[in-house]
Write a structure and sequence with these properties.
By secondary structure, this protein is of the alpha/beta class. It has 15 helices and 13 strands. The structure holds pyridoxal-5'-phosphate.
């Protein structure tokens, strides 16, 4: 695997020199050329914003896709059975992430559905998962008629707390599903050790973690299977799309078979002739594959640029009272920065609520949001577990205990109150744009009292 172009240590050495003496309190320094900082009136109160320029639009069309896309459209070979673009994409994506094999799928959700089925998750099982994730990660477990059992989040890393997993294991547990949320790799060494000890497969939800790294390997290549999304907002986008990665030929043959209506595939299924196994149609189209092949070309360079800007933000934001940037899990070496997350501690802002902080920052021209809420109280869990099927599969006692357990996620609950996210495309901008971000937060900090 290629070495990082920018290492954390090298980067910090190159930025701290210029930032010497940049302790923020009591007087906050101004970075770059931004004229509107410090005590000047907040934009939300009618003052001039720190930033008026646009941020880049995502996704970015690669003109190199025009010829192959047109010729594919004209050929009529839009289905993977008639073409070779999905095959080519699978090969190139496997090379990019250092996996033995990849199966292209219709979406990240499809990839997760397939992975859970192939790893044997069945009706009435339980799967241990992070609560801090996009709801697709909950849904795919429900799709197997299994129960998503949440192990609390480590607030510092935004990922599943490995020390909370073992308590959740029981005789029905059939898999662990860590999520590399925002692109931050979960603590895989500890999670894999728990999987090994209890003989449980580990499936990585790497849907936000292309080219993130853990212990010298890419996220999505550490567990039994890894799942990726190529939906429109993602770093390698094709509108919709996904992939499963793995290093075990038999498992990958079964993933391929499942995604292709259960038709046997590969050496390990040769003896089955044409007798199908259970499956579905979760195939990627050739059009998606052409787009992905063109989008993949910028992935490595973009990842390096995001890392460089994120490390710069880390070095500046940690100096602002009440702003705590994400921390990498033990063993994690690199995030993909699908989101740049930090925690906002309102007690350092005279108790200014997070929503007001976010609104003030947005008014300064800085896109940001509060991220995931306590989604397990949004109705999804209750709708599933009060269904006829779940009442058949699980005892009333288990379902009631499950309801109670949703109230026992204190770390995650706090994180949903304090998190703030910046978006990946912001990290593709210039250093001076990062200064705008820092200066805008400083301006809100200095003027916090005017918002109370
Ligand atoms: C963490 C996570 N898991 C799963 C998915 C599902 O992927 P898709 O939207 O491609 O189905 C996403 C997509 O946003 C995601 O962010």
């Amino acid at each position: 695997m290629k070495k990082n172009h920018v290492t954390r240590r090298k980067f910090i050495a190159s930025t701290t020199a210029g930032a010497a003496g940049a302790m923020i309190t009591p007087s906050l320094p101004v970075f770059g050329k931004s004229p509107v900082v410090g005590k000047s009136e907040l934009a939300i109160k009618g003052g001039a914003p720190v930033r008026t320029g646009d941020w880049m639009k995502w996704p970015v069309w690669n003109p190199e896709a025009e010829k192959p896309m047109l010729s594919l459209l004209q050929s009529g070979n839009w289905f993977r059975g008639n073409g070779d673009k999905c095959n080519e994409f699978e090969k190139k994506y496997a090379e990019l992430i250092g996996a033995r094999r990849v199966v292209a799928t219709a979406s990240g959700t499809s990839a997760l559905d397939i992975a859970l089925h192939v790893m044997g998750v069945d009706a009435g099982d339980e799967v241990i998962v992070s609560p801090y994730t996009f709801i697709a990660t909950y849904n795919v477990i429900f799709n197997q008629k299994a129960l998503p059992v949440f192990a609390d989040t480590n607030q510092e890393t935004f990922t599943i707390d490995p020390f909370k997993i073992e308590d959740k294991i029981n005789e029905r547990t059939s898999a662990i599903l860590p999520v590399h949320i925002c692109g931050l790799p979960a603590d895989m060494n500890r999670i894999l050790a728990i999987g090994k000890k209890h003989n449980l497969p580990v499936i990585e939800d790497a849907c936000q973690a292309w080219l993130a790294e853990y212990d010298g390997k890419m996220a999505g290549t550490l567990g039994d299977l890894g799942c990726f999304s190529f939906q429109n907002s993602k770093h390698i986008p094709s509108g919709e799309g996904g992939a499963i990665s793995g290093n075990n030929d038999e498992l990958m043959d079964r993933c391929f078979a499942f995604h292709n209506c259960g038709r046997p595939h590969g050496k390990s299924m040769q003896g089955m002739g044409s007798n199908p196994v259970r499956g579905s149609n979760k195939r990627m189209t050739e059009l998606q594959a052409v787009l992905l092949l063109s989008q993949m070309e910028r992935a490595r360079g973009d990842a390096d640029k995001r890392l460089e800007n994120a490390l710069y933000l880390d070095s500046k934001l940690k100096e602002i009272p009440g702003i705590i940037p994400y921390k990498l899990s033990d063993g994690a070496t690199r995030s993909s920065y699908h989101l740049y997350p930090f925690r906002y501690k309102k007690e350092h802002f005279d108790d200014l609520p997070r929503d007001k902080f976010i609104a003030a920052l947005q008014a300064e021209g800085i896109p940001c949001g509060g991220g995931y809420g306590r989604q397990y109280f949004d109705g999804l869990m209750e709708e599933a577990i009060s269904s006829r099927g779940y009442k058949r599969l699980f005892s009333e006692e288990r379902l009631n205990r499950y309801r109670d357990e949703l109230h026992q996620l204190p770390e995650n609950d706090q994180l949903t109150r304090e998190a703030v996210w910046f978006y990946q495309y912001m990290l593709l901008a210039d250093r001076s744009d990062m200064d705008d971000v820092v200066n805008a937060i400083q301006k809100v900090y200095e003027n916090r009292k005017s918002l109370l």
